[in-house]
Amino acid sequence: MSHAAREAIERLSRVVVDFPSPGIVFRDLSPVFANGPAYRCVIDALLAPFEGEFDALAGMEARGFVLAAGAAYATGYGCVMIRKPGKLPRPVITEDYELEYGRATLELRPDELAPGTRVLLLDDVLATGGTLGASCRLVERAGWSVAGISVVLELGDLRGTDTLPNRRVTSLLTI
Q1: Looking at the domain assignment, is residue 47 inside a domain?
Q2: Angstrom distance (rounded) from CA 41 to CA 61
Q3: pTM, whole model, 2 decimals?
Q4: What is residue 123's predicted lDDT score, i.e. its pLDDT?
Q5: Helix (H, G, I), strand (E, B) or coil at 86
């Protein structure tokens, strides 16, 4: 993994205690995305392990969009948005999943890409793996294949990779 990307994440991200609720320590990546050279370095590092292995990118709402759009531009490939309910026009497929504090749902339009398209999933943080697991199931239900998962931060204590068996997952920084 890119030492420069790791250094940029550690230097620029901000730790916010008790956000969004007491006891939570939030790692804000917004300053990383706002810094052009750091953002480019992070995008390049997210893509590097999967070079030549994907045909499209997908990002989960909302910060995953920032990463997937940048990666799509950098590679010339298309970008699919995996959204919260009620945000996409036309027919969608949905996937419910468990969160630490309840349930959530994600949606995507299965007609966005050709069957068999290899999709690389990008997101900012891998915590418990619920969002990424649901995203993988949606991609496969759409008739595409999951080329891999690449995230900026992995919260190691939450063991999210354990919930993604047989998936190739890379993270730029594990905390």
Answers
A1: no
A2: 22
A3: 0.95
A4: 98
A5: coil
Residue 95 structural domain: 52-174
Residue whose tokens read 């550690």 = 10
Catalytic residues: 63, 100
Alpha carbons within 13 A on the beta-carbon side of 23: 0
Task: Compute CA distances 100 → 36, 91, 110, 127, 130, whole Å.
Answer: 34, 29, 28, 10, 9
Integer Cα distance of 35 and 21 in angstroms = 27
Phi, psi of 85 (to 5 degrees): -60, 145
The pLDDT value given to residue 9: 97
With respect to residue 16, please indicate whether it lies within any of the assigned structural domains.
Answer: no
CATH classification of the domain holding 77: 3.40.50.2020
| Residues belonging to the chain | 175
Burial class of residue 165, CB neighbours in 10 A (0-12, 13-18, 19+): exposed
- Crossing angle (nearest 10°) for helices 36-47 and 3-12: 130
Q: 13 phi and psi, to 5 degrees?
A: -70, 155
Residues sharing a CB contact under 8 Å with residue 7, sequence separation 6 or more, in sequence order = none
Average pLDDT over residues 4-9: 96
